[in-house]
Design brief:
This protein has 2 domains: 43 residues; 199 residues, Response regulator (Rossmann fold). The chain contains 7 helices and 13 strands. It starts with 5 loop residues before the first strand and ends with a strand. Helix 5 links the parallel strand 10 and strand 11. Helix 3 packs parallel to helix 4. The strands form 3 sheets. Strands 8-7-9-10-11-12 form a 6-stranded mixed beta sheet, sandwiched between helices. The protein has 259 residues and is an alpha/beta fold. The chain is globular, with a radius of gyration of 19 Å.
């Protein structure tokens, strides 16, 4: 097997598709194709992935995303909320930006290591003045290191929490700045308490690369004078309320007339 090959792991019932990003001696380093997950493995645990298998039901999910498009009254014009997306992973960031573009949403993105985000977030917010902020990347919950409530049991949750607090130092109102934070298995409760409108992961599961962007896009396209349908928006993500949760918030899109 070589760097760039798509593989699954026998030890995990071949449930997630990875690409090999590095090989060091007998250890193969992996990154999820669709799931925000890093892992490592030995060669004897890996199986090459056949694109036709679709073990993650990705094709069905992508079809669902296409069905999300909403027909608008042609007599009016629409001003969706602006998105600032900070991502610890360059590949996932590019995928999210492409998704925003497909929805005709103004978005700007930056790749920042998780330990850099809190230091840089205030200046980025000050410069770009977004309506919606996404803070994501990679995370993990290590059961052996402690319970759900212990910060030391997570790879990057404490870094995301610090970034959310910095964002709230810039803008304390949950309505004026909508914050979406977290990644795979993140400390959902702590992120909400820190000031996020939406966060992962209520059931400490892995989330899809697009899940934070799906929430952001729905908030961008939701009317500014109406409360969102919270459950409906969360159910549009790949794993629903097990992967993402949040609070009822008004949207950020203004409607004008005439077109």
């Amino acid at each position: 097997m070589n760097i760039g090959d798509m593989v699954t792991r026998n030890s995990h019932n071949n449930d997630i598709v990875f690409t090999i990003v590095d090989i060091d001696d007998d250890i193969y380093y992996l990154k999820g194709i669709n799931v925000r997950l890093y892992a490592d493995s030995t060669l004897d645990d890996l199986v090459k992935y056949d694109n036709n298998e679709d073990i993650e039901d990705e094709k069905d999910f992508q079809e669902r995303l296409k069905e999300d498009d909403v027909d608008r009254n042609s007599e009016y014009f629409y001003l969706p909320g602006k998105i600032l997306h900070i991502d610890g992973d360059r590949d996932y960031l590019k995928r999210c930006l492409n998704y925003y573009e497909s929805k005709n949403i103004a978005a700007i993105g930056f790749t920042k290591k998780e330990d850099e985000i809190a230091n840089d977030i205030y200046a980025l917010l000050e410069e770009y003045q977004p309506n919606i902020l996404v803070i994501t990347g990679h995370d993990a919950y290590y059961k052996k290191k402690g319970g759900y409530e212990e910060a030391s049991a997570y790879k990057n949750s404490s870094l995301f929490i610090d970034a959310v607090k910095e964002a709230r130092r810039f803008e304390s109102s949950h309505q004026k700045l909508i914050v979406i934070a977290g990644a795979c298995q993140s400390n959902y409760e702590a992120l909400i308490k820190a000031g996020a409108n939406f966060a992962s992961s209520p059931k400490r599961i892995n989330i899809h690369a697009l899940d934070p962007a799906i929430i952001a896009a729905h908030m961008s396209l939701a009317d500014t004078n109406k409360d969102i349908n919270l459950k409906d928006i969360i159910e549009h993500t790949k794993y629903g309320s097990e992967g993402m949760g949040g609070i009822i918030t008004k949207g950020t899109m203004y409607t004008g007339y005439p077109r």
